[in-house]
Protein: Programmed cell death protein 5
Amino acid sequence: MDDPELEAIRQRRMQELMAKHGSGNQQNGEQQKAQEEAKREAEEHRQLMLSQILSAQARERLARIALVKPDKARGVEDVLLRAAQMGQLTEKVSEERLISLLEQINNQTSKQTKITIQRRRSVLDDDD
Structure:
């Protein structure tokens, strides 16, 4: 659960690769490949950590949420990963605990919609 350290190592490696290769079209292609590889590795590491943190049912629920609202699912994943890195999670997160976390996040981020209706006076309306 040493995600910040892993990210720092990746950044240093990317800088080494960029310094090693000169400028030009080959660098662009290689640089893009290296970036894509780093992103892929980071995502794999993230999914591995989530599989260690979440129970099977909770992982399925989070995957279904990700289909509908990917941003919300990513936010929940971030919260869970941070909690695990800080040592706040002592056991796997169950589906019930995930649901309560989702409800807390919904309450914090809920947007209040206020509708006001303004009637316009028409020429045909008379107060008489």
